[in-house]
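From the shared-data thread, chain only:
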Amino acid sequence: MDFKEIIAKLIVDVLQDENLNENEIKEYIEIPKEESNGDYAFPCFRLAKILKKAPNIIADELKEKISKQNEFIEKIESVSGYLNFYIDKSKIVENALEKFNLQKEDYGKQNIGNGKTVLVEYSSPNIAKPFHIGHLKTTIIGNALYKIYKNCGFNTISLNHLGDYGTQFAKLIVGYKKWGEEYNLEENPIDKLSEIYKRINELCEEDENVLEECRETFKKLEEGDKYCVDLWNEFKQLSLKEFEKIYNLLNVKFDSYNGEAFYSDKMQEVVDLLEKNGKLTESQGAKVVNLEDKGIKAPCIIQKANGSSIYATRDLAAILYRARTYDFDKCIYVVAEEQNLHFKQIFEVAKYLDLNEKYTNGLEHVSYGMIRLPEGKMSTRKGNFVKVEDLLNEAISKASEILKDREIENKDIVAKQVGIGAVIFEDLKESRIKNQVFDLNEALNFNGETAPYIQYMTVRTNSVIEKAGYIPKKEDVNTNYLTDEDSIRLVKLIENFGKIILASLEKNEPSIIARYAIDVAKAYSIFYNQNKILSEDKISQDARLYLTYMTKVTLTNSLNLLGIDVPNKM
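Structure, as C-alpha cells:
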C-alpha cells in the first residue's frame, strides 16, 4: 500500500483538472520533518499557477472537499499553504507489517535491475606501494555500492583496476637497479619498495637526467624488455600478496584484477580509431584530443612525445574492452574527486571510439573527498602515509580491549567484526564527497553515531528474541499495541527501508543507508526503554516482539549492505 499514491488520487479526483496527473502530484507529497505536522504533507504552492489561487486558499478548499471518512485518513489540516494528512496509525502499522512479512529475512531486496549489468571499479591501488588509508575510501565506498546494486537485482561486477603500469614503475625499476642490493625484499617487501620509490623520486627532482632515464625505462617496459618485465612481475606479485591481507580483513572480493598493464596491447586500437575519426592532433610532439568545444580547456593526451602511452589511453582501452566483454549498462568509477578532469576528458573522448551510445552514456565517475592526517595531505612520494593494515589491526586491538571484560564466546571474531565495522562505518556515515580526518577513537565509541552502537542495538534485538524463544507470526500481531508514539516512529522508519536503498542507489551514496541505520537504532533504543517487550501479556509481547524482529532484520541488512558484519553477542 502506497499512502502517497492514495493521497495523490484523492487530490486529483477532487480537483478534476485535466492539467493534473497522479504521478506528478505524488512526487510533490512530502514527509514532514516534524511529526506534529502529520504523516504526509502536500505543498499547495505547486498548484497556485494552475488553479490561479493562493496556496492557503487551495489548501483550505482541498481540506473541505476531501472526505474525512476515507478509511486511511484520520484527519486533514490546512497550515500555511500545506495540506497535512494524518494517517490512521493502525493502517500504517498494518501496511508496514504486510510489506515486511512478504520478504522477512530478505527485507529490502529489490529487482529494479531487471538483468541490467553494472560494473563497479574501485580500490585500484598502485603495485609496489603500501595500501594506505588514502585507498581505504574507494575500497569501502565501492564495496558498498557493489552490494547495493546487487541487492537491487543488477548483474553487478566488481573491478580492481590495478595501477600496475606507468612511469612510476619505471622509476622503481631504475631505483632498484641503483640500490636493490641494499634491500632484502623477502621481509616487508612493500616497505622496502616504498623506501626505494621515495629515494628515486628525490633523485629525479634533483637530476633531470635520472628522470629521463626513468622515462626511457618505461618505454623499454612497454616494448617488453625482459629485465624490466621480470622485475615488474616480481613487484606485482609481492604487492598482490599484501593487498589480499587487507581485502580479507575488509571481506572485499573482486571479479576482475585486470590492471592498466592488461590493456597495454589494446591501446593501439584507441589511437587508430581516434586517427580514423580525425580527432587526434599534435601538440609539442604528443598526440592529443582537443575538447574545447565540449567546454574542457585542457586537451586529453593520448600518446606522449616519446611514443609511450598515458593512463588516459589505458582507461579508453578498458572502456572498449568492458563494452565488448560485459555489455554493460553502467560503468561506475569510484575514484577521488582530484580525478574529475581526467574522467570528464575520457568520457568525452570515448564518444569518438565508435561505441554504442548505451556505453558512453553509462560511464559515471563517483567521486569522493580525501582522508587526511592531522598534519595534512598524505603522499607515498614523501613517505607521509598511514597503512591500512596497521589501522585495521589497531582497530581490532582496541575493540578487543573494550570487550575484554565481557562474557562473549569467540571474542577474537567479535573484536574483528566490531573493529573493522567501526572503520568502515566511520568512512561511510558522512557524504562521500566530504573531506575527513579519520578518528579511530571516535569510530569505536559505543555510545556515538557509530557501527559499534548500531551493532550493539542489533545484538540487543537478537537477545530479546532469544529470551522470548520464538518469533511471532505476523497474523498474531495486534497492531493496536504498536500505535504509541515511540512504536509508530520505529514502524515508519522500517517501512521506509526500500526507499532509502533506492535513494542510496540513485545518488551512489552509501551514507544515506548509514544515517538511516543510526536513526533506526536510536528509535529502537527509545522503543525498548519505553515499552516492556517481554511480559505476561502475550498479546502485547507478540506485537512488540515482532517489531523487534523487524528491527533486527532491518539493521542487519542495512549494515550488510555497507559491508559490515553483526556479531551474535557483544
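The CA atoms of residues 194 and 413 lie 32 Å apart.
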